[in-house]
Amino acid sequence: MDHVTIDQIRGELQDSFETLMEKYNIDDIGTFEEEGPEDDYYIGYTVRKNGRVYMVHMPFAKTDEGQLELARQEWTVETDDPTDEDISGFPTIDAVFEQLFK
């Protein structure tokens, strides 16, 4: 992936909301963003289904120009339950939701 702006990624995520909600019967969906240490940046979805909240994101590196570059093609899932461990290694968003909502 080339360098892209945060707004470009947000737009791509938002464009997929309706499709994902219908395909996986999701109650609510929004964007997730979190700045990590140094140049790390995580962006993806916040999803609510059946009373649970999931933060599903990919790792990016922030460039000196403030743009983002994909660090790894790997989705990670966090939940709102602090006792749950993060689950990483999903190659696609469909793989994430198929695992979570099977």
From TrEMBL:
Q: Which residue ranges run through the membrane? A: none
Q: Please state what the protein is called.
A: GK1464-like domain-containing protein
Report the domain of life of the source organism.
Bacteria
Q: Which InterPro entries match?
A: GK1464-like (IPR028990), GK1464-like_dom (IPR040915)
Locate the GK1464-like domain: which residues? 4-99
| Pfam families named among the record's database cross-references | DUF5634
